[in-house]
Structures are given as C-alpha cells and as structure tokens.
User: Fold this.
Amino acid sequence: MGVTIMLLLFLFGESSSVMAQETADLHLHQDTVYRYFPAHSPVKATWMSAALPGLGQYYNGKYWKIPIIYAGFSTMAFFVIQNRYEYNRYKEAYAIKVELPEGQSSDNIFVENYSQADLLSQREYYQSSLELSYILTGVFYILQIVDATVDAHLYDYDIDDDLSIHFEPQLVPTEFGPRVTPGIGIRYKLAVD
Assistant:
C-alpha cells in the first residue's frame, strides 16, 4: 500500500513539474524529439529476444508469433527429454549386457530381448537423435532472434495500399528514329524522408 502511494506521489509530482515548464521549452527541435523519443530499435529487439524468447516479438508488436515460438520450444523440449530417456535406457541395458556373465539372466527386459550389438546400435541411435535435438533447439532459438531483428528493421516500413499497374506507350529512340515499340519497363519511386 505504501509503495502504491509513493508511486502515485512520484507520478503526480513529475506531471506538475512538466506543466511548470515555460512554453518556449515545449517547442522542441527535430533532433531533440528523436533524442527523447527514440525510433524502434532492431538492436533492442535482438537483445530482448536473446534474453527471453518471444520478448523481441512482443517489442515489435507481433504478438501472434509468441505462442508459435513457445510451441516450438515445447516440441523441441519433448524430443530432447524423450531421446535422453531412451538413450539412458539402452545405455544402462548395454552396460548390464557387457558386465553380465554368460548364462545368467537379468530383470532388465532389454537385456533379455536384445543382443549386445543391437543394444549398442540402439544406444548410438538415441545418442545421435539427442544431439540432433539439441542442435535443432539451438537453431530454433537463433531463428526467433533473427525473426525479431528483421521485424524490427521493417517496423517503420510503409506499405502503400496503392499497388497498381499503369500501361502507357512511350516513344523509344531506335536507329530508325523514334517509334512506338513494345517493351516492358519498371518504374519505382523511393521516398526519402
């Protein structure tokens, strides 16, 4: 309760000091406005997304991507856990099979049903699957950082609704003089602010 009161007093105190400024201070120059209100930063989006996956997408306003990112990480975590579990099972069964004297039995079902070569093959398969799961998780992590960075770069990109095509004949100089000739031309305009 005390923290809330302190916060309110701070906010109201700041607003009264802002109102007390002279009117000459309110007319800021163009470069001053950019200093106080910085543009959308791709670097900030990159670091936010690296610190917590999905935070860069939140900063960019792409809220619909956050569930996709966490669904992807959940899927990757499932495969890591599943492959590690199977790897440990076959690793343990292979160790028992190697140490087990000839003619004795074990209560491990894998030791009884598989040969030593089969257990080794399964252990290596799940080890490579586990390593691949780690690599794919890292790649997915890097891709979500790249996605946040690219979205931040394109944050202020203006997409005009006027995407029209205009056909018009032109007189093109040829070696026989100016004539109307068939051709395709592309004209674009870059707006520099």
Summary: The helical segments are 2-19, 23-26, 30-36, 42-51, 55-60, 65-99, 109-113, 116-153. The CA atoms of residues 28 and 34 lie 10 Å apart. The two ends are 49 Å apart (CA to CA). Confidence is low (pLDDT under 50) at residues 14-24.
